[in-house]
Amino acid sequence: MSGLFFEEFSVGQQFKHAIRRTVTEADNVFFSALTHNPAALHLDEEYCRTQTEFGQRIVNSAFTLGLMVGISVADTTLGTTVANLGWDEVRFPKPLFHGDTVRVESEVLETRASGSRPKNGIVVFAHRAFNQRNELVATCKRSALMHRKPTL
Fold it and tell me: Is the pLDDT of residue 1 over 80?
């Protein structure tokens, strides 16, 4: 377990996650197929080359969101979270393409005790994903229900 307990988070705390990931064509095609998303933006190279402003396929935004949050888990919530409560303000300011390498930064925006679960607290994170050109490609706020430190 490498995640932090509720009491170990503080507002303003920053994480620059060491894990980085280069996104492949297979990632995008498999994810789109597994989630039954037939959008030509993800699957049809010719369409994207001739009919879109991007000139190439773009990575499925749901994959981008999942990757961004997934990269953050080892440093923040691995083994110490009860559940994700929600993702808010999800944005994709620039597209992600096959071959782009993603890095992620996170910040603690809020911590509060759970009103209904005394053994838990709620942490709100801001996650930001960047490509290899340091361009912001995704952001979100994630609310997580966290375990408190065990008492002896």
Answer: no
